[in-house]
Amino acid sequence: MNAAVLEGRDLPEGWTPRILDAHHHFWDLEGDGSWPWIQDEYNPDFFLGDYNAMRRTFLHEQYLEATRGWDVIGTVHCEAERSRDEEVAEDDFLEGLHAVDRRFPAAAVAHASFLRDDLDEVLAAHAERPLVRGIRSKPVIARSASESVVGQPGTLQDPRWIAGLHRLAEHGFSWDLRVPFYHLAEAADLVAELDGIPVVVNHCGLPLDRSDEGLAIWRNGMHRLAALPGTTVKVSELGLYPNVWNPESNISVVRETLQIFGHDRAMFASNLPVATLTAATFDDVMDVVLRGAAGSTAAQLDALFHNTAARVYRVDLTPLLTTES
C-alpha cells in the first residue's frame, strides 16, 4: 500500500483502501481492434486538452504499473469509443482479458448507439456477454454552457434517442450518463421519466467550470440528479482544460459530491489512462479523493472504494477480496 499518500490523512485507524475501480479504459493499438479517435483522428477540442500522451496501448500490464502500490481488487471497464461498428467486438476483447485475469475487468459497460436501426440486435448481443452490466451512450451536447442543442437529433430531448435509452430496461442494463455540468439539470428531467434503469453519473458530473457561476450550475444539476432514486455517481476525472490538475479545487469537488450523493451512492473510479493527462500519477488522484473524503468512517470508505460499485455493477466481491493482488 502506498503509505506516503495515506500518511497524515484523516482516515480510520488501520483502514486501507481496497479498490474496485468503477471506470477505466483498455485499448490494444497493436491488435485487431480500431479506436479511431486515438489511432487516426486527433480532436484538438478534446475536453481535457492535448491527449497525445495516451495514444498508446493500455492494457492490464500498463494498468498495474500505473496503480503500483495500491490494492486494486478488480475493475469495471467503460466503453472506450472503439469503432462504432465494433461495439460487440469490444465485449469479446474484454471477455478475453477477463479469461486471463478475472479482475481486469470484472465487469463492463458497453456502448450502443441509441439511434441505430439495429439497436435491438446490438443490445441482445451485449446481453449475451456475461461481463456486460450496462451501456454508456453519450447524447449530443452543446460546446459550452452559453450554447444550446435542445431538441436536436441525438440530444436528451430527441424522442427517438430517448426511446432507445428506454430499451435498456428490457435487458436489465444500467445507463452511464456522461454529460458536462451544464446538461445535468436537463438530464435529471429525463432520468425522472426512466423506469427500472439505474443511472450512473460519470466523473462527478464534469464540473469543468470552477467559477462561482459554473459551480452553482453544477450543484443545481447534481442535487436534482441525487434527488432521484436509482442514481449513483462516479468520483472520477477531476481534470480541467487545458491539461490542468488543481488539487485544492478537486478536493472541494470530491467533498461536495460525497455530501450530495452520500458514500453509499458514490463509487471511486480512476478513469485511467485518461486521468493522467492532467494528474501526474494515480497517487495524485488517490491523494485528492482521500483528502476529499476526510473524516469518513471505515464503512463509508469501503462503500466509496468498492461496495457501491459492486452493488451497482453486480460484481461478486467474495473472490476478489480473497485474491492476492
From TrEMBL:
InterPro entries: Amidohydro-rel, Metal_Hydrolase, Metallo-dep_Lactonases. Residues 21-314 form the Amidohydrolase-related domain. Pfam families: Amidohydro_2. Belongs to the metallo-dependent hydrolases superfamily. This is Amidohydrolase family protein. The lineage of its organism: Bacteria, Bacillati, Actinomycetota, Actinomycetes, Micrococcales.
